[in-house]
Amino acid sequence: MKRRSLLQHAAALTGAAAAPWALAQSGNYPHQPIRWVVPYPAGGGTDVLARAVAEAMRGGLGAQIIVDNRPGASTNIGAQIVATSKPDGYTVLSADNAVLAYNEYLFTKLPFHPEKDFTYVGGLTRFPLVLVVHPGFAEGRTFKDFMAYVRANPGKVNYASPGNGSPHHLAMEMFKYRTKTFLTHIPYRGAAPALQDVMGGQVPCMFLDLAAGLSVIQSGKVKALAIGSAKRAPLLPDVPTLAEVGIQDTEVYAFQGMLAPAGLPADITKRLNTELNKALASPEVVKRMQDYGMESLAGTPEQFRAMARAEARRWGPIIKATGVKLD
Description:
By secondary structure, the chain is α/β, with parallel strands linked by helices. Helix 2 links the parallel strand 1 and strand 2. It has eleven helices and ten strands. Helix 2 crosses helix 9 and helix 4 (97-106) packs parallel to helix 11. The chain has helices at residues 3-27, 45-61, 76-83, 97-106, 143-152, 167-179, 191-200, 210-218, 266-280, 283-291, 301-322; strands at residues 34-38, 65-69, 91-96, 118-133, 158-161, 184-187, 205-209, 223-227, 253-261, 295-296. 43% of the residues are buried. The protein has two domains: 33-126 and 255-322, Bordetella uptake gene, domain 1 (D-Maltodextrin-Binding Protein, domain 2, 3-Layer(aba) Sandwich), CATH 3.40.190.150; 128-227, D-Maltodextrin-Binding Protein, domain 2, CATH 3.40.190.10.
C-alpha cells in the first residue's frame, strides 16, 4: 500500500474512532458544571437576570451553572473568553448590544467577530430605554420644553451615561443625530452613579433603561419624558413614545441573549436553547421580567441571530455618522 493510501486509511480509522467518542461526550451532556460568563460586575441587571435564569435552567439540565463575572473593555474581555473557549457546551456568555451590535463599529480592531466566532443559543430579554430628566430641571417640564431649551443652547446641556459605548450613551447619540441637536456627554463607571447624579441634579438628563429606572420613575425621583419602544410601556402608560413626540426611527432598547463558542454541536445547542426557553417561561423568571418591564426573547437560535444582526446593521451607520470610537 502506498504511503498516501496508508495515511488516508489511518485518517479514516482515526475519524471512525473519534466519532463515537464525540457522540458519547455530546450524549452525556452535561456531566459537569457550566460556566456562564457575564461581562459586567455582580449586582447589575445583566448579572441578576443571568443568575435567575441559570437557577431556573439548573433543574432541567441536571447540572450546576456558575456565573462568572468578567467586566471590562466594553464587554470585550468576557466575550473574548467565551469566543476562545472549547465549543463543548460548558462555557456560555450573556451577550448584549455591545457584543452583538456596537463593538464591531466602535473598535478599529476587535478580538472576535460577533457573527463568526460564536454559536447563537437564544435570546434572553430586551427592555426599552427612557429619556429622563431631574424633576427640578425647569426646562424639562415637558418634552417640548426640553427640546426647545436644547435647541436654543447647543452643547450647554449635559447628559449622563453608564459609560462610553453603553446602550444609554448610543441611544442619546442616535437621538442627537435624529434631532440634529448637540448635548455634551458625561460618562460614568456604571448606571448607578450616573443615575445618582441625575437624581441629585448634577446632570440634568440621561437615557435610562426601564429595568433599572422603573422604580425611580414611579417614585418621582426622575421624570420620564419619552420612551424608546414602539408602543407605550404598560408599566408607564402616561409616558409617550419617541415617535409620538415626533422623533421617528429612534427605537432604543437594551437586549441580551446567550452565546457559546463557534462550532458548538447542534444537539448541545438545541439542549441549551430548550432549557433556556423553559427557564424564560418559568413563573419566577416571568415575574422578575414583568416587575422590571422586560420583554422575553424566547425563541430559536436562528431568530435571535437574525434579530442581533439586524440591530448591528441598524446601528452601524449611526455609529459611523456620529463618529463615536472607543480606541
